[in-house]
Design a protein that fits this description.
The protein is about 25% helix and about 40% strand. The protein has about 160 residues and is an alpha+beta fold. It has one domain. A 6-stranded mixed beta sheet has the order 5-6-2-1-8-9. Strands 4-3-7-10 form a 4-stranded antiparallel beta sheet. A hairpin with a 2-residue loop joins strand 3 and strand 4.
C-alpha cells in the first residue's frame, strides 16, 4: 500500500507542472521597400491566456480571438507593452496586422511599424510573461542582409541594443 501511495504521489508531482520552461520567440526584419519593421511574436497560447487572466484582462481561448477586434485590442496592448522597439528613448508605434494560433498551441502575432522609418541603432524590450513566470526567457532573431543575429532576453536583461541596417 505504501508503494502504491508513493507511486501516485510521484506521478502527481511529475504531472502537476505543465512545463518547466517558458519561452517566447520573436523574429524581426527591416523591409527596405516599405521602410518599416516587420515582426512576428510567438508565445504559448495557454500561458498568455493565464497571464491575461492574472492581470484582469479576461479573454476567450486564443482561437476565438483571431476574428474578434475587441479581444485582439486587449492582446495588442499587452504584446506592445512587453515588446518595444525604442529609438532615441521613445518606443515606436507598432500595429497588429494579424494573428494565428497553430496546432502547437502557439499564438503568433504579426506587427509592423509605420512606413517611412529610418533606423540605425535601437533598443529592444522583450519581457512578455517575465512578470508572471520567473523562468521566462525570450529570444529574438533579427534578419538582415548580413545574416541572422540572435538576442536572448532574461528577467535581469529585458532590454538589448542592436543595429539595424
Amino acid at each position: 500500500m505504501k508503494l502504491l501511495f508513493t507511486i501516485v504521489l510521484l506521478v502527481l508531482a511529475l504531472t502537476s507542472n505543465a512545463h518547466d520552461y517558458y519561452f517566447a520567440f520573436a523574429e524581426m526584419q527591416f523591409n527596405k521597400e516599405r521602410n518599416r519593421l516587420e515582426i512576428s511574436i510567438r508565445v504559448t497560447g495557454h500561458d498568455l491566456e493565464d497571464y491575461m487572466k492574472h492581470i484582469g484582462q479576461k479573454i476567450p481561448k486564443m482561437e476565438k480571438c483571431i476574428n474578434n477586434p475587441l479581444e485582439q485590442q486587449k492582446l495588442t496592448q499587452v504584446i506592445t507593452k512587453h515588446f518595444k522597439v525604442i529609438k532615441e528613448g521613445k518606443p515606436l508605434s507598432l500595429n497588429l496586422i494579424g494573428m494565428e494560433v497553430n496546432n502547437k498551441d502557439e499564438a503568433i502575432f504579426y506587427l509592423v511599424s509605420k512606413d517611412d522609418l529610418s533606423l540605425d541603432e535601437v533598443s529592444i524590450q522583450f519581457d512578455i510573461l517575465m512578470d508572471y513566470f520567473e523562468e521566462q526567457q525570450n529570444k529574438l532573431t533579427l534578419f538582415s542582409e548580413n545574416g541572422k543575429e540572435f538576442l536572448t532576453f532574461l528577467p535581469h536583461q529585458r532590454i538589448r541594443k542592436l543595429s539595424i541596417n
